[in-house]
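Technical note accompanying the year-one report. For the benefit of new consortium partners, we illustrate the data format agreed upon in the data management plan: each record pairs a sequence with a C-alpha cell string. No post-processing was applied to the example shown here.
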Amino acid sequence: MFSCSSLLNIVNMKTTWLPSSLLLITLMSCVSLQESRKPNFVLIMVDDLGIGDLGCYGNTTLRTPNIDQLAEEGVKLTHHIAAASLCTPSRAAFLTGRYPIRSGVAGYQRPGVFLFNAASGGLPSQEVTFATVVKQQGYETALIGKWHLGLNCKSRGDHCHHPSIHGFNYFFGIPVTNLRDCQPGHGTVFQIHKYLPYRTLVIVLVTAASLHYLGLIVIRRGLILGLLSLLAVLTGLIAGFIMMMPYLNCVLMRNHRVVEQPFTSENLTQRMTHEAVDFMERNSAGPFLLFFSFIQVHTAMFASAAFRGTSRHGLYGDAVHEVDWSVGQIMQTLDRLKLTETTLVYLTSDQGAHVEEISATGEVNRGWNGIYKAGKSTNWEGGIRVPGILRWPGNIPRGREVHEPTSNMDLFPTVVQLSGVPVPEDRAIDGHDLMDLIQGRVERSTHEFLFHYCNIHLNAVRWHPQNSSSVWKAFYFTPNFYPENETACFHTHTCFCSADYVTYHDPPLLFDLTRDPSETTPLTPDTEPAFHSVLAVMDEAVETHRRSVKPVESQMSTWNLVWKPWLQPCCSTLTQLCQCQQDGEGVVGDKTEDHVSG
C-alpha cells in the first residue's frame, strides 16, 4: 500500500509504471480523506533558542538531528521574524496574530515582561487565540510548558488570564517563566535592590552627618538613627522577599491546580514530553492542537542527568540537546500513532538567544544567533530572526526553503483557516496565511511592512517593496551596548528601551538586509541613491500603522506588573511558604485528576 504523500511524490516524479486508473482512484481517495479530516496541529516553541543553534541553520558544533530532520521533511523559513524580542509580548502576538500593542501587552515599564505569578496583568479575555477558534471547531487543545501571559486579576483563584480562558482545554506547565530563583545557588534574577535608592539614601545620610558635625547645620541624632533603622528594615524586607522567591514564582500547575511549588526543573522536560505524548495518545482520533512551549533554554539553565556534559557548549548546549531529544519523541509518537500525514508541525523560538546570559558563578550560557547582530531584547536581527520550520507530508513540499519575510504572527491565520473557518474580521489581524507561500503557489510574501516594537515604542520598520528583492530596515533608535566593543548590554543584563539606555537617530539608520543581513554598515545618501525616497515610504507606512492602533488598557502598567500577595498562587498557605510536591496523577478518559500534598 502507498501513503498519500508517497503517491504525491510519484505524481511529482511523473512515474509511469503504476497503472493510471489505479493511481487516479487512489489519489481521489486521498484527496477525499484529507478534505474530510481536519489537520492536527503540533506547535513547538523553544524559549530563547538562537537561530544559529540548529544544524539546519548552519550550526556545526551542536547536535540537533531531530529538528534537522524536521526541516529536511518540510519547509524551512530563513527570514522568519518574532513579533517582539521578549517573551510575554512575543507569545501574545503568536497566539493572536496581532502586534502586542493591540492587546495592551506592551508598556513603558522595563523590562517589559511579567516577573511575578502574583501580577494582575495578562492577555485580555477579549483577545481571540488560535486555540479559542479551533476549540470551537471541535478540537481538543493543550498547552504543555510555559505560559507567561498572566494568571489572576482580582483574587488568587479567579484565573482570569489562565490558558483555559484562551482556548486550552488542558494545561500542564508554569504560569510565568523559568528564573534564576528556581535553580538553587543561581541567585535572583530580579536584583530588586538595584531599583531602590540606597546610594541616594547613603549620600544624604553621610552629607547630613558631615554638615552636622561641622556645625553647619543642626540635625537631631534621633532623625539620623531613624533613617538608618528604616534602611535596615527595608534591606531586611527585600532580603526576605528574595529568599521567598522560589516559593512564590517557581510554580508548576496542572489545569487550575498547583501541583509542585517550588518545582524541580532537572527532569521537567522529560515530564512535559511525557505529558505531550500522553495528550496525543488520548486524542489520536483527532482533531487536536498541541502547543508545546519549552521552558528550556531560558535561564536558569538546566538539563537532566542523561544530557549533562553531552555538548561542547556547557549547560546551554546540553539543554539544546535535550530539546532536540524531546522533539524527536514527539515526532516518533506521531509516526507510531500514524498521524504524521494528518498533522501540521511547526517549530520556532519566541525570540533570539539571550547573549548576555552568564550564570551567577560566571559560566557563559548564551546561545548563538549566527550571522545576525545582538540578541534577545533588541530588534537587531539577532533578537527577532528566529527558526521557522513547518512539516506536513503530502501537503507541504519536502526540503523547500523560503527566503521571504514571514512572522510568527502568521500561525494564527494559517491555523484558523486550516481548521475550516475564516479569520475574524472584527479586529486587526497582522499575520498572513502561510500556506500559499510554503506550498509554492506564490513566490512573494504578503508582508510588505513589518513593525518592530520595543515595549510600547515603535523601534524599527521593515519594508519589502512589491517590485524589488530588497528588504529595507530602518531604526528610529538603537540600544546603547556595553561595553562598546560588544553587541550586548552586559551592564543591565538585557537591553532596555527607555531614553537613558538608547540612542535616537534622525534620520533613521537604514539597512538593506538582502545586502547586509548582519546590519554592519548603515546606508547614507552617498552610498544609497534611494535613501530619502525609501525612508519617505517607510515613514508614511508608520503613520498609517499608528492610526490603526486603537488605545487599550496597558497590561504592562506598574500596577499590573507589581507583586500582589492576594493574587499569589499557593498550594498551602503563605505562612508555610507555599510548599508542596506532586503526589501523583491519574488519567481517566480525557480528564486528569490531581492529588496534591501540602
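Partners are asked to follow this layout when depositing records. The chain has 14 helices and 18 strands.
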